[in-house]
Amino acid sequence: MKEIKKITKYIASLPGFGFRESRRDVLFIAAAGILTVLMLFLPTGFEGAGQMQGGRKAFPANRVKVRITEVNNEKLKIIGPVRQGEQQLEAEILSGHFKGQIHSTSNNMMGKMELDKAFVKGDIAFAVLNFSEDGKISYVQVIDHYRTGKTVFLCAIFVLATVIIMGWMGVKIVITFVFSAAALIRVLYPMVLRGWDPILGSLVIVTFITALIMFLVGGLSRRAIAGFLGAMGGVFLTALLAFVFTFWFKIHGAVRPFTETLLYTGFGHLNLAHLFIAGIFIAASGAMMDLAMDVAAAMDEIKKQHPAIRRATLMRSGFTVARQAAGTMSTTLLLAYSAEYTAMIMTFIAQGVPLENVINMVWVSSEVVHTLAGCFGLALVAPLTVLFGGIILGGQAAE
User: Fold this and answer.
1) Over the stretch 157-190, which tens digit does the pLDDT of each residue have?
2) Rounded to an integer, what distance in angstroms lies between the CA atom of residue 208 and that of residue 213?
3) What is the pTM of this model?
4) Where in the chain are the domains?
5) What is the pLDDT of residues 369-393, one digit of tens each?
6) Among 7, 201, 233, 337, which is most exposed with the fewest C-beta within 10 angstroms?
7) d(CA 238, CA 283)
């Protein structure tokens, strides 16, 4: 017990680990952590969708790690960087009930670098086992290179680095990061597949995510309320702008990888245009939260230093901060989005395609709408946060 107390005291003495949060904030953080863990284990209802063979569930131990022991490329045509044909492989199973067995398999390559994967002898791969009716392996389907261990390692390094560098705030960051991912993957996406409207469903989930992030980072305080209202105001306006411009530009929505594939795999009810619109304000919501919290925190600090400051003066000061922050944040959003279509624009440049041709292509128009609707909504977050901050913080003592 003494050792535990010493360790706790040592941790509390580290930079960023001084537990200065109020009791209600600590309880809220604990509740958020528990909710996040529960969200991670929430069933989506689609867990067994890809494991059905002939109308029945496949053998349960069907995901394994394998080592490629032999590679035969005789049936593979290689033209420059493009490979088309079939690799003949020998794969040794490294995990599961069938560990140690070696099976022949193949790796079909379509000549599309973004989809194809090439193996060499000694590679560790992820595979799915297909079984015959008597429970024996009928075919080993090699999916891709095995990255599970690397992914876990990278996540662990991220969590450790965040907590060590940011201290108690790092714990909050990890909770909000995991909660956001779980809310999208375990709640929003499955519900949209079941028939939720993507726009309405996304607005509900983004509202919960924004509330959790704002009140975790800002505490259960008036500045967090101001930041939350400002961010959500920007999200709703961005959704409205995205809706108007998407239909005005006649964008059908099937402009993202695998979007059209959903229609051919039993989900023809999906509204791809609404899915595209939801993606716009979901992508912009993080920057909006950042800007809203910056402005709200600045106004709260000004109020603390000058308790007698008038509401109008506080709002002017907040707007000065907001303009500076929004100026860089819009460019940040543009640069973040530009990475998605860099290769496409470079292809047009290399082929000498006229600018007017480019801007009338649906892929380019969709990115213009995505970027400008997000940036326009972000610009509106600043005055909205200043307005709510002035109303909530201006006439009361700062916390």
Assistant:
1) 999 998 888 887 888 889 988 999 999 999 999 9
2) 9
3) 0.79
4) 58-146, 195-393
5) 888 888 888 888 888 998 998 888 8
6) 7
7) 11
Taking the CB of residue 22, how many other CB atoms lie within 10 A of it?
A: 12
Contact 193, 267 (CB under 8 A): yes
The second-level CATH assignment, the architecture, of 58-146 is Beta Barrel (2.40)
Measure the CA–CA gap between 242 and 258, rounded to whole angstroms: 21
**DSSP reduced 3-state for 318:** helix
Give start and end residues of each alpha helix (H) in the chain: 2-13, 23-40, 148-166, 168-182, 189-194, 198-217, 222-248, 259-263, 272-305, 311-338, 342-350, 355-359, 362-393
**Side chain identity at 114, as an amino acid letter?**
E
d(Cα 195, Cα 183) in Å, to the nearest integer? 17
Tokens found for residue 76:
């593979």
Cα 223 from chain centre: 26
Confidence band for 235, pLDDT divided at 50, 70 and 90: very high
Please give the angle made by the CA atoms of 96, 97 and 100, to the nearest 5 degrees: 80
* pLDDT value at 206 more than 90: yes
